[in-house]
């Protein structure tokens, strides 16, 4: 088995044989954590209202197209199944 190493060996927890320190996992100061979350949230590039609407409309349109496709497929398969059952009787 080949051992894989991180390109940055100084990074803690980057190697499977060296798990991250448990003291880094335990939250000591919840207020600091909330402040860091808030800072990260401001870094996110949120979609505009127009982009959100376009995405929602695309999802709705694809749902309609796929439902029509599966309805058509179901009807075709139903037709052939009924035809097959009539022939075998």
Give the key terms.
89 residues, mainly alpha, 3 helices, elongated
Which structural class do you get from the secondary structure elements? Answer: mainly alpha
Q: How many helices does DSSP assign?
A: 3
Strand elements, count: 0
**SSE sequence, one letter per element:** HHH
What integer is the average pLDDT?
83
The proportion of residues in beta strands is under 5%
Helicity, as a percent range: 55-70%
Biggest sheet: strands, sense, closure? none
Radius of gyration: 28 Å
Runs in which pLDDT lies below 50 for 5 or more consecutive residues are: none
How would you describe this structure to a colleague?
With 89 residues, the protein is mostly helical. It has one domain. Helices cover 65% and strands 0% of the residues. It contains 3 helices and no strands. It is elongated and about 75 Å long. The N and C termini lie far apart (60 Å).
Short description:
By secondary structure, the protein is mainly α. Helix content is 65%, strand content 0%. The protein is built from three helices and no strands.
What's the helix and strand layout?
Elements: H1 22-25, H2 30-43, H3 49-88
């Amino acid at each position: 088995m080949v051992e894989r190493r991180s390109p940055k060996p100084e990074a803690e927890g980057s190697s499977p044989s060296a798990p991250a320190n448990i003291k880094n996992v335990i939250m000591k100061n919840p207020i600091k954590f909330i402040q860091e979350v808030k800072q990260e949230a401001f870094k996110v590039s949120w979609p505009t209202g127009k982009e959100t609407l376009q995405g929602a409309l695309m999802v709705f349109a694809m749902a309609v197209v796929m439902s029509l496709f599966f309805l058509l497929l179901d009807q075709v398969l139903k037709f052939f199944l009924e035809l097959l059952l009539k022939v075998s009787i």
